[in-house]
Amino acid sequence: MVTTAREPDTVRAILEQVVDPEIPVLTIGDMGILRDVTVADDGMVRVVVTPTYSGCPAMDLIRDEIVDALAAAGIDRVTVDMVFSPPWTTEWMSDRAKEKLRAFGIAPPGSTAGADPVLCPRCASASTRTVSEFGSTACKALMVCEHCGEPFDRFKEI
Known about the structure:
The chain is α/β, with parallel strands linked by helices. The protein has two domains: 8-88, 2-Layer Sandwich (GMP Synthetase, Chain A, domain 3), CATH 3.30.300; 92-155, no CATH class. Helices cover 23% and strands 26% of the residues. It has helices at residues 8-15, 28-31, 59-72, 95-104; strands spanning 19-20, 23-27, 34-39, 45-49, 78-82, 106-107, 128-132, 140-145, 151-155. A four-stranded mixed β-sheet has the order 6-9-8-7. Strand 8 and strand 9 (151-155) form a beta hairpin. The longest helix has 14 residues, at 59-72. The radius of gyration is 18 Å and the shape is elongated. The termini are far apart. The mean pLDDT is 91.
């Protein structure tokens, strides 16, 4: 069965189920990489996404997950376009996304001005230090809390 989505909000609601494969507690909407959804008069759905950085290895999988999620809802006429301008910034992440990161054990990004202290996501101490600017993904740095002694990832401000 093929469903015709006439409202971009309907498509957006479906896409809220698509998660970032590197941080599965965040949706592409939470991340701010879902930039636009349009539905043409003929029912063709166009989804516009902006990668977190130009070489992000997760984007091919995210594109496939977008197409699959819409296909599961009966929407089979889809194009997914990647745009690189303006470049993605952590300012596009929702407050909900930042809270989800904290609950998942990742320190969320602060402001891009960089003046915010990095709080430990486990004990909320500001007594933290960077161990390595290179964490489990290119978007994260490895930190340690001087108070509780736990290591944790920090999502870098971009």
